[in-house]
Amino acid sequence: MSGDITTSLRIFFVGGLISFRALFNWLSPWIYIPSLLIAPIFQILLFAYIGRSAGIESDAFFVIGNAVQYSAIPCLFAMANTIAGERSTQTLGIVLSTPARRIPLFLGRSLPVVVNGFFVSMFSLVVGSLLLGVTIPRSAWLPLALVVAVAAMSCTGLGLTNAALGLRVRETAVLSNVLFGVLLIFCGVNVSLDALPDWMAAVGSWLPLTHAIEAARELAAGDTLGSVAGLIGREVGLGMLYGGVGLAALRWLEIEGRRSATLEVQ
Amino acid sequence: MSVIEARDLRRSYRTRTGLWKREKKVVEAVRGVSFAVEQGELFGLLGPNAAGKTTTIKMLITLLLPTSGSASVLGHDVVDDAREVRRHIGYVFGGDRGLYERLNALDNLRYFAELYGVPAREQKQRIGALLELVGLTGREKERTEGFSRGMRQRLHIARGLLHDPEVLFLDEPTIGIDPVGARELRATIGTLKGQGKTILLTTHYMFEADELCDRIAVIRAGELVAEGTPATLKQRVTGGHVMEVETFGMPESAVAAVRSLAGVSTAAVEERGQAQVLLVQVGPGAEVTSAVLGCLGGVNVGRVSSREPTLEDAYVELVSGQ
After folding, report:
1. Which of A11, A39, B8, B280 has its C-alpha lying 20 to 30 A from B51's C-alpha?
2. Does A31 touch chain B (CB under 8 A)?
3. What is the interface pTM, i.e. ipTM, of the complex?
C-alpha cells in the first residue's frame, strides 16, 4: 500500500516534470519569450491604450486584468498538449498501457503548467506596471502573487477538462483558442462585469479567473487579503470543480477511447 | 492455466466517410480468434496487412475493448482487471515513433520506470542493465530525435522490459530495420525467451518466425486459419514443390490462368527489383512446368527453377485462402 502511494507521488512530481519537458512545445527560448513573455505585454498595451483613448477605466485595471488572464495561454494550451502531444509522438497508447494511476499521472502534468502560468502572469504584471507607470503598493505584491497562483491553478483546472478531450479528438488547439476568447470577454478582463449584460456576467461568475481578477484589483487598490478571502475561496472552488470535471472526463474518455478505438488515431 | 488466452475474440470498428452526407460502415477486424500461449513460449501471430494482428494485440494489452469474446493474461481478464494485466506485460511496437523526441534515451526510460512503479533505488541499475542488453550504453545522454530507426527500436525494447514483465507483446519489432540491426534484435528476443519470458510476436518475416517461434498462428481477414509449430505448418505444403518463374511485365490475368491449372495449389507474384517472380506451389506428383509456361505466352520469362517449400510458402498458401 505504502509502495503504491510512493509510486503515485513519484508519478505526480517526477513523472509530471519529465512529461512537461517532453511535451511542452514552447520550451525553447526562441518560442517561449515571444509567445509567453512579449505577447502578453502587447495585449496589455493594446487594451490600456484603447482604455486611455476611450477615457474608461485606469491603466491598473487593464494591466491586472490582462496579466492574470494571459495565464490562460500556458494553462489551456500547455495542459491540452500534455495529452494531445502524446498523439503526435504516438506515446499515448504506451502511456495508457502502463498501470500508472491516472489521477497522479494527469494531475502531475498540471503542476508545471500551474507554475508556468503563474510565472507568465507575474512577469506580465511587473513589466506591464513598469511600462505604463502603474503603482502597486509594495505590501500588495505578496497577496497578489497568491491570487495569481490561485488563478493559474483554477485556469489549469479548465485546461485539464480541455485536455481530457484530447483523448477523443485530435484538434484540442481549436477549443483552447475558443476558451481563451471566452475568458477574455466574460471574465471582466477589459470590461467590468457590471458593464456586461447580465447573462454574460452570470456566465463569467462560473468561469475561472473572474474572481481572481476582481480580487487582484482590490488588493492593488489597497484592500487586505482577508477582505478578498471570499473571492479567492470561490476561485479555488471553481478550480477544483473544473479539475474534478477534467479528471472524471479523463476517466470516461479513456474507457470510451478503448471502446471506440480513438486513442491512437493520428 | 495458459499465460495468454484469447477466447472467441471479436472486434469491429465503425468508420465514417464524407463531411455532410456521412456514411457509416462497420469493419470486422477480428472475427472470433481463439488461442492460448503457455509459460515461456514464443508464439507468433502471422498475417498480411489488415489481417487483425495489431487489433488482437491491442485487445490483449488493454488498449482496446473487445466487441465480444474474452481474453486473459496470467489469469487476469483484460477488461475487468486491466490494471493488473498492465502490471505484468510489456508492449513494444515497430516503427519510428513512440518516443519523446526532446528527451534523451535515459529520460525516456526514467519516465516509464516511474509509470511502471520501478523503485527509485532500483532504477539506475535496471536502466543500466537494459541499455547494456540493447547495446545503447554510452548513447543514453543523447536526444532520441537523433537516433536511427534501429536504435529507436532497441530503446523500445528496453522500455518494454523496465518493470521486468513476465509477458511481452512485440508487434512487428523488426519492421524497417536494416538486416544487421534486425539480426541483433532477433538475438535479443532469443535471449529474452531464454530468460523464460512468455512472448507474443507479430511479424511479416517468415524466416524470423521460423527462427524464433515455438508455435505460430496464421491470421487472415480477422480469423485464424492455421496454428501449429513451424514444422507442422511447413508440412502442409511438403510433398509438393515450389516452382519459381522470373518474369518481366507479368499481367494479373496470367497469374489467374496459372492458378486455375490442375496440380497448382497456389500462385503468387513477388516483386524482386525489376522482375516479378511467379511462385507456384505444385501439388505432390504433379508436373506443371509446360502448362505454366504456356499460360505466360507473350510475357518475357527469365530463369525457371524448382525448390523445396518453406514456411513462407505455407504462409502464402494459408493467407491466399486456397
Report:
1. B280
2. no
3. 0.88
In Å, how far are A208, A230, B2, B258, B287 from B296, measured between CA atoms?
75, 89, 50, 8, 16
pLDDT band at residue A266 using 50, 70 and 90 as cut-offs: low
In angstroms, the separation between the Cα of residue A122 and the nearest Cα of chain B is 28
A109 CA: distance to closest CA in chain B (Å): 12
CB burial of A8-37 (b: ≥16 within 10 Å; e: otherwise) equals: bebbbebbbbbbbebbbebeeeeebeebbb
Contacts with A, B 198-237, CB within 8 Å: none
- The one-character DSSP state at B99 is S
- HSE, CB side, 13 Å, CA atoms: give it for residue A119: 11
CB contact under 8 A, B86 and A99: yes
Pairing between β-strand B167-171 and β-strand B198-203 as defined by DSSP bridges: parallel
Between CA A206 and CA A215, with CA A209 as vertex, the angle to 5 degrees is: 105
Contact B115 A15 (CB under 8 A): yes
Report the largest interatomic distance among the alpha carbons of chain A, rounded to a whole angstrom. 63
pTM of the entire predicted model: 0.85
Query: Which of A32, A87, A98 has the most B C-beta neighbours within 10 Å, making it the best mutation to test the interface with B?
Result: A98
List the domain range (segments joined by +) for residue A132.
2-260
> B99 to chain A: which residues are within 8 Å by CB?
89, 91
**Distance of alpha carbon B166 from alpha carbon B253, whole angstroms:** 50
The tally of domains found in chain B comes to: 2
Distance from CA of A237 to the nearest CA of B (A): 30
Last residue of a domain, one of B229, B258, B293: B229
- By Cβ distance, the residue of A10, A97, A105 closest to B62 is A97
**Could you say which of B229, B254, B271 is where a domain stops?**
B229
SS (H, E, C) B121-150: HHHHHHHHHHHHHCCCCCCCCCEHHHCCHH
**Distance between CA B67 and CA B87 in Å, rounded?**
23
List the domain range (segments joined by +) for residue B302.
236-319
- Indicate if B241 and B221 belong to the same structural domain: no
